[in-house]
Amino acid sequence: MNRNYLGEFEELVLLTVAHMHGEAYGAAITQDIKERTGRSVVLSAVHVALYRLEEKGLVSSAVGGATAERGGRRKRLFTITTYGMNILSEIRQVREDLWQLISKPIQPAVL
Amino acid sequence: MSKDSKGHLPPPWIDKFLQWRLPEEQFEEVQGDLHELYGQWVEEMGEGKARGRYLWTALTFLRPLPKAKKSLYPTYSDYSQANFFDMIRNYFKIAYRNLIRHKSFSFLNILGLTLGLTACLLIALFVQDERSFDKFVPAGDRIYRVYYQVDNNEGTSVIATTPPVFPTILQQNFAEVESTLRVLNHSGKELFEVGDREAYEERGIFADSTFFDFFPLSFTFGSSLKALDGPTSIVLSQPMAQKYFGNENPVGKQILMDKQPFQVAGVFASNPKFHLQVNYILPMSATGLSAEQLQSWSTYSHNNYIKLKEGTNVATLETQFRQYTQPYLKDEVSTFLPVFQPLHDIHLYSASFKYDMAVRGNITYVNALTIIALFILLIACFNFVNLATAKSLQRAKEVGVRKTVGATRKQLMVQYISETVLLAFISMILSACFSYLFLPSLNRFAEKQISFDLFTNPLMPPVLLLLALTVGILAGFYPALVLSGYQPVRVLKGNVVGETNLGKTPWLRHSLVVVQFSLSVLLIISAIVVITQVNYLHNKNLGFTKEQILFFPMRGDNMFNNYETFKNELLKSSTVSSVSIGYGFPGDMFGDGLMTAPVEGVEKKLKATQLMIDHDYIPTLGLQLVAGRNFSKEMSTDKDAAYIINETAAKELGYAVASQAIGQTLLWNTWRKPDLVKRGKVIGVVKDFHFKSLYDKMEPAVLQIYPEAYWKVAVKLKTAHMATALPHVQAVWNKFSPDYPIEYRFLDESFEQMYKAEDKLKSLLWIFTCITVFVACLGLFGLAAYAAERRKKEIGIRKVLGASVESLVLLLSKEFVKLVAVALLLATPLAWYAMDNWLQDFAYRIDLDWWIFALAGVLALLIALLTVSFQSIKAALMNPVKSLRSE
């Protein structure tokens, strides 16, 4: 896919998947985002983002083992692909370039 | 961190919802995630809140999820999408091949459905038309007609007309009434003249100037404003204006009505959906009724309409009005109750009203027709179900193959239902064509102007398509269910499914046949009853001779003043056997009057029809006297102090034997001068004769000589040769009233007219019974053919072993005869109930004899046997070699 545009939320989910190192699945990501950002995220939104990322080839998934707290249901574990990693660093590069261009640190406006 | 969620199970119904919502491969992970989160939520905020949160989260999954790339399990729905269009094309190909291959079956199906749909369409058009009367009137839901419910010694009757004072009272005393309208029927025919064009016209009315505010008919010439203001203005209908003035604008021109000049104020276009179909409208002031007469409480002659203000409670107003009028509405023998009838009910719900000039339909017949239409459609659908299920065996292999290559049951059902829908569409197109063809005949028959605007009415095509779709799905659902249920392993092994069914009775198919035949028998019985009753009405001995009697009203002052000479002139020809002049001839108009009989000191009141006759009335009509004598010219008292009564009147006066009534005194307030009492003795009792229609019970009648009311002339002719008699009558007429053309009819014609509605019902029932029976037979024919085919080998073997043709025919027909017998048992009580109800409308009616039901039964059996035996004889006659050699 040529269009490497990512939504803000998609980027957040992708970053979470990346830092969880193969332990990322719907409930865990929801929980993680909530703990880190204080943002209350709806599960289905996370799922939508994950599937969309997979569609774009940024993450890949495999069905993992069942645990007791899930009542024996298997989870789908997501890992970031190399392409996903590249996109992330590309985004980061763009942001850092932009930060460089801001010479002065930002000052709060004085009334 | 991970908490155990045991004991904290979320509501299972939410999971059910998720399972329904999500694809299988996504459901498991989503549910797992949800349960895990739920466990945490319970810890964090307690079970109650967690549940709410759980439900909310589950609901957010209503949004469409992108498809997961890799599914947990490969399902064949992944592959079945592949050649979707090829599959649909294949459906059509198979459907087409099936139609072609089973030509006779397809033909039976399409024929049955087409007939059913055509009947349905035509009836629907008719019913729709009947129900749309007066719907064009703005604010029609606020317009009511005030009618009378009258109770007296003759029972309860309903009268469409009420006193002319009602609107005044309502307008003045009830704030809820916005405006009122009086309409007076101009009964009889009037001579109209413009230049040398002259003709008698009927159906005219006098109306208040509010008429066109109530009923805004569209004007082709002139304007409805102030059209009825002048006392000599007249408003004509379009056809009538055309007749006298051609295409020119007649507004302001003069037209003579009964030699009086009137100015045309406007021409209105007739609206066929209006309950008052009139030719001309005159202002109320043209009646010549005095203001006093228009405030009368005792004459009920006017059709009174009221328009209520918005939001008025009609029931309350009606009660108040009844209370208000109660003190005035008394009469020695009758009680009167005013009732408010909604405008939209006038056309369909006034069938039994007396003195009603509205164009009336009959809700009973409209409902009956609707039911019949549904019957026919149902029977046609059943045919389809039956034939398709019977035929399903032959398609079992197809089902097997389709299932093996991966068709789901749903797909198969869709396929078979769409085949039926296709068939229904073909039938719909055909029946639309047929309806189009038959509509003119229906219009002529029903005297309507229904149009079938298939292309101009935007509602029509979708409604028809929807109907076809519904019929298709209804008819196709069960066969599709059966077909798609076959198991491929069994079917493909050559183990014919039917064999497992052989011993079983096909309950559904049999009950459908029973229902079909019950409906058919129901209609057959109804048709027989109606036909017998109508024939009875036409042929019943009415107690007088109505044949060869020429009948016409007198016209012109000269004729009225010299009626005796006129009568004698008429009698001069050898073609005339007798002449009677009077008012109150059978089948014509009548006046009522109250008789007082001072019996043993007590005054007894009797409401009776007054027949104003002359000395020759009784012999002219051939009435029989049971006691006493006819009026005689030798008796000078006969003219002013004598009455003849009918048997019913004698009975109501309390004389069990007719001769007891002779010599009794009767008092009557004369019509012309109500203060003048005519006192006379009963000189004769005439045998009851049906001067009114057979709907009505025999009413008491008083015959007397009262020249002031003489109006009509009845001429009894000696021969049926009009050629010699008519010129004579015409010549005498011209001698007396050269200014007026003569307009005569024959007395028996008016009796034929009386039962027009029943005659129509008779023909309608006859047609629909035939259609129903025919469609039901189509189904039976198909089933019999199928049964014969299925048992071909059995018959072959039986024949080889020596079975006779008769026994084989019996074997094959037995089953169907049983079904028809059951149908007969079911239909008889229903038919009895329905027909008994219908007959209650007639005072004189046939008995529901057992032979009617027997005849219907025999007919149904015969028809069924004929249908079935065609197939069974064919099967029984077949050479067994043919059916057995292929084994």
Condensed summary:
The complex is a heterodimer of chains A (111) and B (887). Chain A has helices at residues 8-20, 26-37, 43-56, 82-101; strands spanning 59-66, 74-80.
Q: What do you see in this structure?
A:
Chain A is elongated, with a radius of gyration of 17 Å. With 111 residues, chain A is α+β, with helices and mostly antiparallel strands. Chain A has helices at residues 8-20, 26-37, 43-56, 82-101, and strands spanning 59-66, 74-80. In chain A, helix 1 packs across helix 3 and helix 2 (26-37) packs across helix 3. Chain A has one domain: Winged helix-like DNA-binding domain superfamily/Winged helix DNA-binding domain (Arc Repressor Mutant, subunit A, Orthogonal Bundle). Chain A has four helices and two strands; from the N terminus they run αααββα. In chain A, strands 1-2 form a two-stranded antiparallel sheet. The N and C termini of chain B lie far apart (77 Å). The radius of gyration of chain B is 38 Å and the shape is globular. Chain B has five domains: 12-75, no CATH class; 85-133 and 362-370 and 377-500, no CATH class; 140-358, no CATH class; 505-540 and 754-887, no CATH class; 549-753, no CATH class. Chain B contains 29 helices and 24 strands. The longest helix of chain B is centred in the middle third of the chain and has 38 residues, at 409-446. Chain B is 50% helix and 17% strand. With 887 residues, chain B is an alpha+beta fold. In chain B, strands 1, 2, 3, 4, 5, 6, 7, 8, 9, 10, 11, 12 and 13 form a 13-stranded mixed β-sheet that branches. Chain B has a six-stranded mixed β-barrel with strand order 16-17-22-19-21-20.
CATH first level of chain A: which class?
Mainly Alpha
Number of domains of chain A: 1
Q: Enter the CATH topology name of chain A.
A: Arc Repressor Mutant, subunit A
What is the helix tally of chain B?
29
- The neighbouring-strand order within the major sheet of chain A is 1-2
Silhouette of chain B: globular
Please identify the structural class of chain B as seen in this structure.
Answer: alpha+beta
Strand percentage of chain A lies at 5-15%
Summarize the biggest pleated sheet of chain B.
Answer: 13 strands, mixed
Radius of gyration of chain B: 38 Å
Can you tell me the residue ranges of chain A where pLDDT is under 50 for at least 5 consecutive residues? none
Q: Roughly how many Å apart are the termini of chain B?
A: 77 Å
Number of strands of chain A: 2
Q: Indicate the radius of gyration of chain A in whole angstroms.
A: 17 Å
Succession of helices and strands of chain A = HHHEEH
The amount of beta strand of chain B, in percent, is 15-25%
